[in-house]
Design brief:
The protein is built from 17 helices and 14 strands. The protein is of the alpha/beta class and about 500 residues long. Helix 6 packs parallel to helix 7 (about 185-195) and helix 7 runs parallel beside helix 8.
């Protein structure tokens, strides 16, 4: 990723860099200037510096400088930096030390991890093989790792690293934060207790020769203070952390069980039997079939909007002037089994193209068949006559151009089928962009997660606009690229 593109992406995701520094006049200039090569938003917290650090920082443009006269410790400096970042509207902060130990070149690694794990605390695990370290530093890290495991039940290889990405809206324990460097351990512990995902990534580290190192670590005094902190944290782990983790596990299980039971009851006991009786009694007329679509429409709105899935909310945005009663080809990215219901909240006059196993499903296959959702078995050409009949009756055709659900929510390769159908019938294409369903119910999981459904309906594309993109292959490729950019925009907005 080019630096300018990287800077743009960091800003779009509201990520800044926070550098706490205390008497690092030999290294701070290089650290800040290298950081500015990768990120335009750099906040430097001068923690009561008494050397030439302040003079150096005043000569560097394009940084936000926070300073105070008395040294108060790294924990205090981080707290000040986080508050400044929040005041400036940032959602995440990458922290690195001012002593030159951390490589700003690794900032893209934190961005990549943040994109994959939004709202997670990303920990830069230092590659220490072959690095000349003091025995005290090595022992302190192992000591800290051990107590972190005792307090949280989770293992980390490097709890002492200061190279991290913090989700600023998910920082816990700030009111109790110690003022010195052990505050970083405290932040990790509280984050773990509150269910914040902690993701380690490998980063480079530089330790200068012993004679050039500037260290503010005081072995005896600092070990005593760390020991006291760990004693307090162990006590809090029993009376606060463990009950919180158990409660979160219990509510998560309860949420999943309740949602599953509600879904099974609503579909198998209420909706499906009613629909089966409805389709079997009397002749299936066009008016009766449309009422079936209305039932599906109202059921989807009840589940997604009015009742809601516990721990989730549903948001939508529709472009001005979109008429859902006009037949179109609707395309949407595909993440989860829940996608259909997300789209069905807008109109009853929508037909989905399905796979053969859905058409033949023993539980809801009858509903699918009577609703005239069409299986694609032998290519699009085989169902063209049926599609023509549906379009003539005012129905829109919904197609997932990716063909299957995305495992990681990224936009996959677009097939040409939707664009072929649109051209065949001279129809507009109505883009829908879906976010959240793949995180709430992933393709590879059966456990419901908390989150937000968001679906945006864009302005329709005319055949003239589609033809300007090129042939069907080029249309599919161009729209996929558009979806990738649009989805990234939505992700940046939703994950703040």
């Amino acid at each position: 990723m080019m630096n300018e593109e990287l800077k743009k992406t960091l800003r779009s995701r509201h990520i800044c860099v926070v550098i706490p520094t205390y008497n690092n006049d030999k290294t701070i200039k290089a650290v800040v200037e290298k950081s500015l090569l990768y990120c335009d938003d750099v906040i430097v917290v001068a923690d009561g510096c008494t050397d030439d650090t302040m003079d150096i920082l005043h000569d560097i443009d394009k940084i936000t400088l926070v300073s105070y006269p008395q040294n108060k410790g790294k924990g205090y400096a981080l707290k000040v930096g986080f508050r400044k970042a929040l005041d400036k509207g940032f959602s995440y902060a990458i922290t690195l030390d001012g002593d030159g130990q951390h490589y700003p070149e690794n900032i893209p690694l934190f961005l990549k991890a943040n994109q994959k794990h939004p709202h997670a605390l990303i920990v830069g695990s230092r590659q220490l093989d072959g690095v000349c370290r003091s025995k005290g530093s090595s022992f302190a890290n192992k000591f800290s790792n051990f107590w972190f495991y005792v307090q949280t039940g989770k293992a980390l290889d490097d709890t002492q690293t200061g190279y991290r990405l913090y989700p600023l809206h998910k920082l816990y324990g700030l009111l109790f934060l110690t003022s010195r460097y052990e505050a970083e351990l405290e932040l990790l512990v509280f984050a773990s207790w509150h269910g914040v995902k902690i993701v380690p990534i490998s980063v480079q580290v530089y330790y200068p020769p012993r004679e050039e190192r500037v260290s503010h670590f005081r072995p005896t005094k600092d070990f005593v203070r760390i020991s006291v902190l760990n004693t307090v944290l162990c006590f809090l782990a029993i009376v606060y952390g463990l009950p919180l983790r158990l409660w979160r596990f219990f509510t998560s299980c309860l949420q999943t069980v309740y949602s599953l039971l509600f879904f099974l009851f609503f579909t198998l006991v209420v909706f499906t039997p009613f629909v089966w009786i409805y389709t079997k009694v009397g002749k299936m007329t066009e008016k009766k079939r449309y009422r079936l679509h209305q039932l599906i429409y109202f059921a989807s709105r009840f589940v997604m909007i009015h009742h809601g899935i516990p721990g989730t909310k549903f948001l939508s945005k529709v472009a001005e002037g979109v008429d859902f009663n006009k037949p179109r080809i609707i395309i949407c990215n595909h993440q989860s089994h829940l996608d259909l219901m997300c789209q069905l909240v807008f109109t009853p006059k929508i037909i989905f193209l399905t796979k053969a196993w859905v058409w033949n499903n023993p539980f809801y296959g009858s509903l699918i068949r009577n609703a005239e959702y069409l299986p694609v078995k032998e290519g699009i050409e085989s169902i063209i006559p049926h599609l023509r009949s549906l379009i003539d009756r005012g129905y829109s055709i919904a197609v997932y151009p990716e063909g299957t659900r995305s495992k990681d929510c990224k936009i996959g390769r677009f097939h040409q089928g939707a664009f072929y159908i649109a051209k065949e019938f001279g129809l507009e294409i109505l883009p829908m962009y879906l976010y959240g369903s793949g995180k709430i119910l992933p393709k590879t999981g059966y456990h419901l997660h908390k989150g937000t459904f968001f679906i945006e309906v864009d302005k329709p594309l005319t055949q003239k606009e589609l033809s300007a993109m090129g042939d069907l292959k080029q249309q599919a490729s161009t729209m996929r690229q558009h979806y990738k950019e649009k989805y990234e925009e939505i992700v940046n907005k939703m994950e703040q």
